[in-house]
Design goal:
Blueprint (H helix, E strand, L loop, with lengths): L9 E6 L4 E6 L2 H10 L2 E7 L2 E10 L13 H16 L1
Antiparallel strand pairs: 1-2, 2-4, 3-4
């Protein structure tokens, strides 16, 4: 049973008392990642591959970070630094 993109979701709920994250996903990319980092229960499978999973992750397994936005000038300077490092 394939789902439309609008029906796919990944849900993370933080339990402050236990310092754990309860997670559910039916997004293939997220399922692959979750299966590799934690113990997930397969809720649904299709053709021997999981299509919905649920599990618990520790507090440190989930992180939030700002997206770094670089200007064209910053990108150019970084490219030049990388070129000089590769020459050494």
């Amino acid at each position: 049973m394939s789902r439309s993109k609008e029906e796919m979701e990944t849900v993370l709920v933080y339990n402050y008392a236990d310092n754990t994250w309860d997670c559910y996903s039916n997004v293939p990319k997220h399922i692959r990642k979750l299966m590799s980092v934690g113990e997930m229960r397969i809720l649904e499978s299709e053709d021997d591959r999981p299509v919905a999973v649920r599990g618990t992750l520790s507090e440190k397994q989930v992180s939030m970070k700002n997206v770094r936005v670089m200007s064209e000038e910053q990108k150019q300077k970084a490219a030049e630094r990388m070129k000089s490092l590769h020459k050494k």
